[in-house]
Every structure is written in structure tokens, then in C-alpha cells.
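Session log. Operator J.P. requested a structure for one protein chain; no other inputs attached. Running the standard single-chain path with C-alpha cell output.
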Amino acid sequence: MTRILSTALTEFRIALRNRWVAIALVLMAVFSLVLSLAGSAPTGGLGIDRLSVAVASLTSLSVYLIPLLALLMSFDAIAGEAERGTLPLLLAYPIAREEILIGKLLAHLAILTLAVLLGHGIAAAVALWTDENALDGLPALARLSWSSVLLGATFLGAGYALSSLSRRPSGAAGLTIGLWLGLVVLYDLALLSAIVADNGGWFTIHAFPIALLANPADAFRLFNLTASGATAAAAGVGGAADAIPLWQSLTSVLLWPLAALAIAAAAFRKVTP
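Structure written below.
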């Protein structure tokens, strides 16, 4: 544990000098403020407090932004060490490779957690200032915060795996962007196209819920929309939240970070200095 914490502290200091850290904090703060202000308009028609509606908007923001920030922070975690020539020295230390990965994960998760708390704190402050009933939405916001951290952990693990496989930061950057586009953007478009083509058939009834749970970004969105009861404010794939039990999306949200870290550890074990 001491070696993991030492690695985490070192990586945290390095991450503080990374421009993506500043970008993460600024983006979360700005977008959260904009969404909390703009998302309060329909609350009268929906009959729920402003913070709950803001949570639905922040969920959509997190689905796109958290994975991207996590991948941008992790794509050179291994490839960058190899290119700089520090990987052989790192592996020469009396510390297991899994401990190195966990240390990097803790440091990067700390950065993401700061960004999430900053953005969500701003959203809560705006909602509480403009709506006295916004306290009702605090449990949903807290649930969104910790599940956002888990979503970030999933894509941090994916970034480490791609960084280990690529061995060059430029190649790892291309792979991570491709992964983000595939899972966050194109995946849902493909599912919606399949639903239209299926016209209420076997895919829509049986395969579609499984396909949603198999994607960490979609499982995260379904979990938060279902738990917050704000599905009326959602559209597209998010509208399927009521059809999938809460425990199934929660299970997917909890298991994906462990699976991603296991994949990253397996890829890192094959890296030679």
C-alpha cells in the first residue's frame, strides 16, 4: 500500500503540470454552469425541482466529457514513459506492475474527482439559489458524482490498456480518440439505426437492453436517469431507462471499472522495456 500511495503522489504531482488537468477543471465548471442555468426552464412543466432536471442535463454532459478527459489523461501513461526512456527505470523499482497501474489510477481519479465536484458543486449552488425545492435533487446529484468517478475509472483503465499496446503516445492518442468515438458517439447511433430497422422485433425487445448494458457510457446514463426519476427530461437512448431495471445498470456501472483495470493490467504485463 505504501508503494501504491507513493506512486500515486508522484503521478499526482506530474498530473498537476498537465494542461489537461486545467482543461478538465475549466470545462466541467463552465459546462455545468451553463447547463444548470439553461436546464432550469422546463421544471414547471415536468413538475420536478430544478436540480433534478439539471442532473439529467449533467448526465448527458458526463457521458461525453468524463470519458474524453479520462482518455486524454491516460493515453500516454505507459507510452509516454516508454518514449521518454523512463519506463525501464520505473520497472526496475521493487514494485509490481499492477501497483504502478493502481497508483496512476488513484492520481488520475483524484484529478477527475476534483473536476466532477467542482462542476456539480456549481450546478447545486445555482439550483439552490434559484429554487427552494432543489434540495430534493441532492441525492440524485450525489449519485451522479460517484458514478461519474466510476465512469472515469473505466475509461482510465481503457486508456492504460491502449497506451500499453501502442507504446507510442501518437498511436495511443489515435486509439483513444477512436475508442471514444466508437463507444460514446457511434455506438448509440448504430443502436438507434438497428431499432428503426428492426421495427419492434427481436432486437428491440431482447438484444437492445443487453447492448445498452454492455456499453459503460450507456449503463452510466441509464443508471442515473432511472435512479433520479428524470427520464421525462431525457431523449434518444436515455428514453429506454424505464425499461431496464435499476440493479442491472448499477451492476454494469460497478463492474466495468474492475474489468477495464484487469484488461489494462494484462496489457501492461506484456510490455517490455
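Operator note: The chain has one domain: 2-269.
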